[in-house]
Amino acid sequence: MNAKDVIKLVFTAVFAIGGAVTFYWFADQWPMWARVLALLAGLGIAVVLGLSSAPGQAFKKFLLDAQIEVRKVVWPTRQETWQTTLIVAVAVLIIGILIWIIDMVLSWMVRMLMG
Fold this sequence. Notes:
By secondary structure, the protein is mainly alpha-helical. The protein has helices at 3-25, 32-51, 54-72, 78-114.
């Protein structure tokens, strides 16, 4: 990473933090729409500056590659999703009942021991 990228990233942080600080600093003086606009402007400039740096370009490439990988995923059908959800719900119910029974037995045993 060269000095130019470091400067871009520093200004990226300055604009992002500046937008957030402006939003909260002028809470009493500015109307909400102006504060939101200042926040969005700071964040927008920060994003544009950050993406123009070498690490930003690498991040952009990563996001594009991730999008390509998501398209390759074979998603389950609606029926498979419902069946799996039902299996998980039944398993949770059964385990919950077993834990409740164990708790009741242990509570009974403690009451018997304590008199």
